[in-house]
Automatic annotation (TrEMBL):
This is Acyl-CoA thioesterase. Keywords: Hydrolase. The keyword ATP-binding does not apply. Its EC number is 3.1.2.-. It comes from Camelimonas fluminis. GO terms for molecular function: hydrolase activity.
Length: 298
């Protein structure tokens, strides 16, 4: 193993990237990761006409990023598989790890989407950037790879999952492949989660009035069939588990016309006190309201 890293995106946090919690919104972490992957593809000599396509992202958020913070990514290789690679990414700010990521990425032909085998040269390059995943960045409350069979849209509706988002993919939502960018998947889940909170009896406006908000602690995103411009999408969500100061949510994004699953997310969410910037417990009444709406996973 080596201690060599691939240097990725390096920039600052803009005010317009921050949300009602006054910190960097989750979608813009994905923007920076996508930019980092361009440097990874270059370092691994991905051939012309091919691309690294994400299958899974596991994310652990360690500290907030605020307007003006300067942050930079670095990446190394954890495992090389027959048709994919497991990568470990760290986002650093002010000498600390702000966020850690583990991803599974496949090398594909951009025209057909078919997998492309690693060359001997690429395997040599990946060995130069190989390292071990430190325990501090390992998954904690959310498994790295999806352990359950995915639901289609009909099954999600039949089980009574809450529709939290409905919209259409625009051309500017897509990346260089012409398909929906991963930051937009995260963004749609983020935009719709307020409807899940309303279903639980915790309105976003009421939380903000009490100087509280919701924040993501840990997340796994799985990508299945990314849509292109003009495709209609819906997201359905459920509250899976109440864990004291945190809750487990499950989200699914679907093609509204075909019912096929586009992506999914399993996420640990905490309630953030805006003054102390720490996670806080719900009141007894709020907890009772949430527990009435739990829908455990199979």
């Amino acid at each position: 193993m080596t201690d060599n890293w691939i240097s990725g995106c390096r920039n600052g946090v803009n005010a317009w990237e921050c949300d009602e919690n006054n910190h960097l919104n989750v979608r813009f972490y994905m923007t920076r990761l996508a930019q980092t992957m361009g440097f990874v593809a270059h370092a691994l000599e991905v051939p012309a006409g091919c691309a690294l396509s994400p299958a899974t992202h596991h994310i652990r958020y360690r500290r907030e990023l605020n307007t003006g913070d300067m942050a930079d990514f670095r990446t190394r290789v954890i495992e090389v598989r027959d048709d994919s690679v497991v990568l470990h990414h760290e986002l650093h700010c002010a000498g600390e790890i702000a966020t850690s990521f583990i991803s599974i990425d496949r090398q594909i032909d951009q025209a057909s989407g078919a997998p492309v085998a690693w060359s001997a040269r690429q395997r040599e390059l990946m060995a130069q950037f190989a390292g071990d995943l430190p325990e501090r960045d390992a998954p904690r409350s959310v498994a790295f790879e999806e352990p359950r069979r995915p639901l289609d849209l009909g099954e999600a509706r039949a089980r009574g999952l809450v529709e939290v988002y409905r919209g259409m993919v625009q051309p500017w939502d897509c990346d260089v492949s012409g398909r929906m960018a991963t930051e937009q998947v995260m963004g749609r889940f983020s935009d719709g989660v307020g409807n899940l909170f309303a279903h639980m009896g915790l309105g976003v406006a009421e939380l903000l009035e009490s100087r509280r908000g919701s924040v993501v602690v840990e997340n796994r995103l799985t990508y299945n069939d990314m849509p292109g411009p003009g495709e209609l999408i819906v997201s359905h969500s459920q509250v899976v588990e109440f864990l004291g100061k945190t809750m487990r949510f499950s989200h699914g994004m679907y093609n509204a016309a075909t019912g096929r699953r586009i992506a999914a997310s399993e996420v640990i969410v905490a309630i953030l006190d805006h003054d102390s910037r720490r996670a806080v417990a719900l009141s007894d009444a709020e907890r009772a309201s949430v527990e009435q709406r739990l829908t455990p996973l199979d």
